Hints:
By secondary structure, the chain is α+β, with helices and mostly antiparallel strands. The chain has two domains: 3-133, Roll (Pnp Oxidase, Chain A); 136-255, predicted glycosyltransferase like domains (Thrombin, subunit H, Beta Barrel). It contains four helices and 17 strands. The chain has helices at 26-38, 76-84, 130-133, 236-255; strands spanning 22-24, 43-48, 52-56, 58-62, 67-71, 87-94, 97-103, 107-111, 114-120, 124-129, 136-137, 145-151, 157-167, 171-176, 188-195, 202-215, 221-231. The strands form three sheets. The protein has a six-stranded antiparallel sheet. The longest helix is centred in the last third of the chain and has 20 residues, at 236-255.
Amino acid sequence: MSESAVSANPPPVRYEEDEKYLLRGQRKVGPVLNALIERQALISAWISPRNLSFPTALLEYSADTGSVVIDASVNEALNSAVQQCSHLTCVSQLDKVHVQFRLQGLRLQTLAGQPAFVAAAPSQLLQLQRREYYRLPVPLTQPLTCTVDFSDRHGVISRRDLRVLDISAGGIAVVAPDDQPGFRPLNAFESCSLQLPDSEPLPIQLQVRNLFRQKLANGQESWRAGCAFLRLPHGADRLIQRYIFRMERLRTARRQGLV
């Protein structure tokens, strides 16, 4: 299998931001694994934490033994990295639906004279429609802001404008404030507003789903918070989708030298 084929699938998405799309248990996960085998679907395998990848395919799935077999890489160094990794994130597509699962404890064996990896079958699997998982990075030259009301222990409200890093139909990622310890996973914020170009501020409710350090383009580090929309006003989802479509079309035109 050619190593260059890995570009056919998108990179993994974060489980924490899309938990509602997780399938759990053998009865739900098994049929998807069988479909990947039957259709000989190309899988991009991402080695964590080294962020290396290679193309593979799901060769076998056994509900009786609770195991799967995937094709090994033609690169021996990558095979060695797989055996030492914390986990392997497998990304594929079925009928234009993003499919993603993790494998741990992979063992290199020989199957029908060819190297292959054996691992425990995944207990959960992520399925996302493209419009649900696609996140648009917000360009620095055309920034978006989300205003969040914070309340201290005395009930005093302070309003902060947070820079939006990316946006999707299901939520946003923002630069989290260092001085607000309450802005952490599972906490909800009801009084927020999202400012899109050429529209009135959208009143929204957010829930923080994950929080981690990241390095910005200028070399500085900041906290990145992935947030889900808890409630959107009527018509807001169409405005967000329209903005994403317009910005993606503009980015494609610039990449092609049309603007």
